[in-house]
Write a structure and sequence with these properties.
- β9 and β10 form a beta hairpin.
- The protein folds into three domains: 14-156, Beta-Lactamase (2-Layer Sandwich), CATH 3.30.450.20; 161-303, Beta-Lactamase (2-Layer Sandwich), CATH 3.30.450; 311-407, Response regulator (Rossmann fold, 3-Layer(aba) Sandwich).
- With 429 residues, it is of the alpha+beta class.
- The longest helix has 33 residues, at 385-417.
- The termini are far apart.
- The protein is built from 13 helices and 14 strands.
- The radius of gyration is 28 Å and the shape is elongated.
Length: 429
């Protein structure tokens, strides 16, 4: 059963559909709209109805007709849209035409063309952002059955490309992948290997002997300026460490203003889960499409991650290290996830841990069985990375609240007993 498309004021394709009918096509290589081949009119309607970005190149001049999704890729800051709606491709992209035209001719000769995960700078959000697309090109035929144009749907794969790149970086933080003499050196090397996501990073660690935070390492673009930026960043690090809360510092021209829109400062969790033992600062790239997602990725990098496929060994490691969160597959060999959870809950120091069940079975009875075994959360395969990231952030927030409360209680105890306190200082060295 089908229904004819009737655009309304709220239709997602209303802008380019209106542009199709308001353009003076007599001034273009295609001629007046009323004289278009029946096939071309059908292709134009098809493209406007497509949910994904798409464009048609028609005729000897490869005249462009595209939908709203493709208009967004062309970008509001560049003069290409709507200026080049109905214009030849060569006028719109003179810089890439020599490279692309042979491939377009290949399609017009009856072939196909596909480009996967291509990096294409766009300005969809008001700045030059990093974006990745997969293009497929296939021939379109006119009323007489001759090849006269090209259809090119465009699939935005930016999220997938960024997720793969970030996953590769995060895997380097796993203890089994460490190759340097210290975990800090491995962490710095991992961050240095992903300048696209982490253009700048600095780590401060608490020096118990000198009773201060000290810069322990730095990677990425160097900091310039007269020292005011360094002082601002050091101040944010001290505040993040003291309050055990993240900070975001804007307007640091000395920290590669052309590459970094600001610096996210995060406290590093202490091994005992009660206090921060340092601070890490990440430069937020100006070219990434969503600062919120960027921030979440950097927060993930401040966690220590352990993996283990053998449940018996995993149980011993969990008892020894007492992780804050355990993500457990129910279908484990030798010991299923339910038994693992029961044994883990019975272990000293693990009653407050957050246990997450991961399974391919999502019935209510499966969820109830997991909760009875001691799990706090239940996730069904395939794992949703965004849902897991939200869960981890909520766990971190709860731990920081508990840590702050313990610190406040301890301070109140010292005050009531007359014990003097001390205020930590911070220097760069």
């Amino acid at each position: 059963m089908t229904r004819q498309h009737r655009p309304t004021a709220d239709s997602p394709d209303r802008a380019t559909r209106a542009l199709l009918h308001s353009t003076d096509w007599s001034r273009t290589p295609l001629g007046p709209l009323a004289t278009w081949p029946r096939a071309l009119r059908g292709y134009a309607e098809m493209v406007l109805d497509m949910p994904a970005p798409a464009i048609i190149f028609w005729g000897a001049h490869q005249t462009q007709i595209y939908n709203d999704g493709y208009a967004a890729i062309m970008g509001p800051r560049h003069p290409r849209h709507p200026r080049y709606f109905g214009a030849p491709y060569r006028e719109s992209r003179p810089d890439t035409y020599p490279l692309i035209h042979p491939w377009m001719q290949h399609v017009l000769d009856g072939g196909t063309w596909k480009v996967e995960r291509e990096h294409v700078p766009v300005t969809r959000h008001g700045f030059d952002e990093e974006a990745c697309f997969t293009f497929t090109s296939s021939a379109l035929r006119d009323d007489d059955g001759r090849i006269a144009g090209i259809l090119q749907p465009v699939f935005d794969v930016t999220e997938s490309v960024l997720a793969d790149r970030r996953a590769e970086t995060l895997q380097l933080f796993v203890p089994e992948r460490q190759v340097s003499s210290t975990p800090l050196d491995d962490a710095l090397a991992a961050m240095a290997g992903n300048a696209a996501d982490i253009p700048f990073a600095r780590v401060w660690l608490w020096n118990a002997e000198k009773v201060r935070l000290a810069v322990a390492g730095e990677v990425g673009v160097s900091m310039s300026g007269d020292g005011e930026d360094a002082a601002a960043l050091d101040g944010a690090a001290l505040a993040a460490w003291t309050d055990n809360e993240s900070r975001f510092v804007e307007r640091l021209p000395g920290v590669a203003a052309g590459l970094v829109r600001g610096v996210l400062v995060l406290p590093l969790e202490g091994s005992d889960g009660t206090a921060s033992n340092g601070v890490v600062a990440f430069g937020v790239s100006r070219r990434l499409p969503a600062a919120a997602r960027r921030t979440r990725n950097d927060e993930d990098a401040s966690h220590e991650v352990m993996t283990e496929s053998d449940p018996v060994i995993a149980l011993e490691r969990a008892r020894a290290t007492q992780p804050d969160v355990c993500l457990l597959d129910i279908g484990l060999p030798r010991m299923d996830g339910h038994e693992f959870a029961r044994r883990l809950r019975a272990s000293d120091g693990m009653r407050a841990a957050t246990l997450v069940a991961l399974t391919g079975y999502g019935q209510a009875a499966d969820r109830e069985k997991a909760m009875q075994a001691g799990f706090d959360h239940f996730m069904v395969k395939p794992l949703n990375p965004e849902a897991l990231a939200r869960l981890l952030r909520s766990v971190v927030r709860r731990r920081r609240i508990r840590s702050a409360q313990r610190g406040a209680d301890a301070a109140a105890g010292r005050a009531s007993s007359g014990q003097p306190g001390s205020t930590p200082g911070l220097r760069s060295s």
